[in-house]
Structure formats: structure tokens, C-alpha cells
């Protein structure tokens, strides 16, 4: 199971924001706050951290809209919940609207009629900086097919459909320390050690073992991710 994990100063607060935006329940545990997904929509997790945001994130979310009224409703809901507009250099004629959640994490509300995200659900895409090599790595790691592979850009999607995970190719945003948004992987049908060995054989590198038994690896671009015990 793949989860997108966010470092957060106020995990409960930012989780409530995203729970309202996505219509999900909030599950608190000792390590953070989880918004469970399903076979087609990725889970989100928020964990306490005092790390500060430095520069643009290398990962952000894309929400889809069904029509112009729905797009404006999503934007107004985000603003009422503590989000804000964000200028990342987008052009006035571009149809998507760029916002930030209460902790400054960028996300986009995509215009209706976007063919690439048609049928992907409300959380349509996890948009990442990354090379083609990383897209191929995660395709093999998750067993998800490549649904886009052109001009160094890649995207993968669960065989069940739903949220796409995409990498935009070079140039990459410079990475400064550990990414504040990253993937957590819980192996299904394998023990943790066997899963780590498999991921290393696909091109990951070992980084460290956490106190709770989580093991940090790095993908071929050097982005850390965590393999948690099943």
C-alpha cells in the first residue's frame, strides 16, 4: 500500500483541512494522522515535524473538478478552511488554480475537461519532480503500469484506476535536505526484509532504520521513502 506522508507542524489541523477537501475520515494514531484512501485513491498521512519549508516542494496534489462551478466551489472551500492563493509563475490563461494548504503546501484545482485526469477521482494526481528512471522504478516497485511515458515525463496508475502518480522530468527542483512530502510503502504479501531486498534490486539504496522499525530507502533520484512493517 502506498501512502503520501507530509511533515507538519500541526498534523491534526492540516489533516482536518484535507479531510474536508477530500471528504475523508480522520484516523489518529501515535505516529500521526491518517486519511485512508482505497484501491483507487491514495492515502494521505500527516506526522509531527518541526522542519521548516525551504523552497518549493518536489511533490504536490492535483484535485479534479467536474465543471466550472465545482472548480470554484473547491477553491472557495479551501480558502474558507485556511488555504490561500499561491503564485508559482502560472499564466493567466492557464485553467488550473494554484492554492496552498494552511501549512503552505501547494496544490492545484484542475480545470474541468482535463483529459489526462479523466476518471481519476477527486485526488486525481500526485505530481512529482523526477526523472524517467524514477517513474520506471516506482512502476516496478508497485506493479503499476506506466500510463504515460513521453519526453522524459512518466506517470503510473494502479491497475484499479484512480489517482495517478506522475514525474515531470528534468530539470528537477534542487533538493534541500529530506523531502517534507514523501512516500510510505507497506508491503502486501511480503515481509519487510524481503520487500527491502526487492526494492534495492530495483535501484533503491538503504538509508537508515527508524526507532519504530521503519526503514528509510532512497529512490534513484535520492528521494527518501519509508518501508513500514506489514
Structure description:
The chain is 20% helix and 32% strand. By secondary structure, it is α+β, with helices and mostly antiparallel strands. The protein folds into two domains: 2-167, 2,3-Dihydroxybiphenyl 1,2-Dioxygenase, domain 1; 181-227, no CATH class. An eight-stranded mixed β-sheet has the order 2-3-4-1-13-16-15-14, with helices on one face. An eight-stranded mixed β-sheet has the order 6-7-8-5-9-12-11-10, with helices on one face. The longest helix has 13 residues, at 68-80.
Q: Spatial order of the strands in the main sheet? A: 2-3-4-1-13-16-15-14
* Subunit arrangement of the protein: single chain
Secondary-structure element string: EHEEEEHEEEEHEEEEHEEE
Q: Name the CATH class of the largest domain.
A: Alpha Beta
CATH topology of the largest domain: 2,3-Dihydroxybiphenyl 1,2-Dioxygenase, domain 1
Beta-strand content bin? 25-35%
Q: What's the mean pLDDT score?
A: 92
Features:
230 residues, alpha+beta, 2,3-Dihydroxybiphenyl 1,2-Dioxygenase, domain 1, 2 domains, eight-stranded mixed beta sheet, 4 helices, 16 strands
In short:
This protein has helices at about 10-20, 70-80, 130-140, 190-200, and strands spanning about 1-10, 25-30, 30-35, 45-50, 60-65, 85, 95-100, 105-110, 125-130, 145-150, 155, 165, 180-185, 205-210, 215-220, 225. It has about 230 residues and is of the alpha+beta class.
Topology readout:
Elements: E1 2-8, H1 11-22, E2 27-29, E3 32-35, E4 43-48, E5 59-63, H2 68-80, E6 84-85, E7 97-100, E8 106-109, E9 123-128, H3 132-142, E10 146-150, E11 153-157, E12 164-167, E13 181-185, H4 192-202, E14 205-209, E15 215-218, E16 224-227
Parallel strand pairs: 1-4, 5-8, 9-12, 13-16
Antiparallel strand pairs: 1-13, 2-3, 3-4, 5-9, 6-7, 7-8, 10-11, 11-12, 14-15, 15-16
Amino acid at each position: 500500500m502506498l501512502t503520501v506522508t507530509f511533515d507538519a507542524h500541526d498534523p491534526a489541523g492540516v489533516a482536518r483541512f484535507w479531510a474536508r477537501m477530500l471528504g475523508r475520515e480522520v484516523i489518529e494514531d501515535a505516529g500521526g494522522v491518517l486519511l485512508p484512501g482505497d484501491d483507487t485513491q491514495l492515502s494521505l498521512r500527516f506526522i509531527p515535524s518541526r522542519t521548516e519549508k525551504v523552497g518549493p516542494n518536489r511533490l504536490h496534489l492535483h484535485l479534479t473538478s467536474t465543471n466550472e462551478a465545482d472548480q470554484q466551489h473547491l477553491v472557495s472551500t479551501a480558502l474558507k478552511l485556511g488555504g490561500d492563493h499561491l503564485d508559482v509563475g502560472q499564466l493567466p490563461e492557464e485553467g488550473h488554480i494554484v492554492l496552498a494548504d494552511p501549512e503552505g503546501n501547494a496544490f492545484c484545482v484542475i480545470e474541468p475537461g482535463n483529459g489526462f485526469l479523466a476518471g481519476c477521482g477527486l485526488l486525481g494526481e500526485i505530481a512529482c519532480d523526477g526523472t524517467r528512471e524514477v517513474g520506471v522504478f516506482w512502476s516496478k516497485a508497485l506493479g503499476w503500469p506506466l500510463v504515460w511515458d513521453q519526453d522524459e515525463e512518466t506517470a503510473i496508475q494502479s491497475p484499479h484506476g484512480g489517482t495517478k502518480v506522475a514525474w515531470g522530468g528534468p530539470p528537477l527542483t534542487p533538493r534541500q535536505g529530506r523531502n517534507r512530502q514523501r512516500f510510505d510503502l507497506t508491503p502486501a504479501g511480503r515481509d519487510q526484509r524481503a520487500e527491502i531486498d526487492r526494492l534495492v534490486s530495483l535501484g533503491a539504496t538503504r538509508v537508515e532504520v527508524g526507532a519504530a522499525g521503519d526503514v528509510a530507502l532512497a529512490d534513484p533520484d535520492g528521494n527518501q521513502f519509508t518501508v513500514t512493517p506489514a
